[in-house]
Amino acid sequence: MFTKILIANRGEIAIRIIRACKEMGISTVAVYSQADKDSLHTALADQAVCVGGPRAEESYLDGQRIISAALATGAQAIHPGYGFLSENAAFAAQCRKYGLTFIGPPAGVISKMGDKEAARRLMQENGVPTTPGTDVLDSVEAAKTAAGALGYPVLIKASAGGGGKGIRQVDRPENLERAFQTASAEAEKAFGDGRVYMEKFLDPVKHIEVQLLADQQGNTVCLGERECSIQKNNQKLIEESPSPGVSPEPRRKLIEAATKAAKAAGYVNAGTVEFLMDKTGRFYFMEMNTRLQVEHPVTELVTGVDIVKWQIRIAAGVPLDFTQEDIHLQGAAIECRINATGAGKVEFFHPPGGPWVRFDTCLYQGYEVPPYYDSMLGKLIVSSSTREEAIRKMQSALCELIIDGAGNNIEEQIEIVRDRRFRAGDYYTDLMKYFRPKKDRT
Known about the structure:
The chain has 14 helices and 20 strands. The protein is α+β, with helices and mostly antiparallel strands. The protein has three domains: about 100 residues, Rossmann fold, CATH 3.40.50; about 70 residues, Dna Ligase, domain 1; about 230 residues, D-amino Acid Aminotransferase, Chain A, domain 1, CATH 3.30.470.20. The model has no long low-confidence stretch (mean pLDDT about 95).
């Protein structure tokens, strides 16, 4: 087992990993940018190293500086968290080159599954259902031909995409050329790869994902599914487990498909297979995220499995000590992402409390929210014996949460949780198109 791990991330996820390491008796090294010198994760780690300027490309995305920090502090492994370098195959390969363990899948697997179009083909070859679509499109003319064959509406998607970037919906032929060019340009800017492909736009659908763990010995276990259909601008807002729209038989089929996907990819460590599910219960592979997910806590609460600790154990060569038959979803868990609507200083901060309520965050009173990074301020997570009770608990917790001085979306989340469609579990990825929230709290 490792004795020292460097966490190549910031904010709440860095704190989450630090806590897991402390419980395992592992020393931690935090890295931070100049903008994060007073961030909570730097205080909680055993050591902290500044790796550059305030912008991500000057610090958290500079793989060589992070590797240098790991070598200088004697860390044996690097945990990338999510975002930044977590799905960067070149960084994973560099870690190995310098004798450091990358706590995630091998570089080759990251590369294979990071190419969304190539991943689609791999799934098709291995009997995992995929959305009707195309290979990489090399021109606008090819896109027009493909759209005509698939039928409008269609989605143009970045081959190297993720995080909702490089995606454009096209409803009619006259909009296709502009959408193709803007999706490609956005993909080039975000991922350094402007290639795009096309899928048939399915509507209405649910966004369902299956969390899995796979060890180095070839064992794969799925930890149930998460419902992630409430999204805004292709970014998730609320996640829950189990999904209110998935009954036992579809769950069994989803687990079977996710296991096939992991085996086909030669997957190791924690990963998530994402699917779209229509009203009939048919589902289609969308992509595989080769990292820890923001919403992993809801799975932990309904399974009792600490995903972060198992990431570390698997990276150290420890085999899973449970099988698929040991996984039983207990109760219900919901997570609301609390996002900033602008930079600012936290003048007053009051997190909610009570049994089975937690707020994963890096906030404290007096904290200055930097303008350089992702807008998420924290994750409010609750669990209870039933979904109905979990919803009531979440509503109460949201009403108790106070973040004054930094604009946020707490009021919007309260309204979503109160919405009749959410409470009934009868919602799809288009819910936010018709949602009209009140002004965000400031």
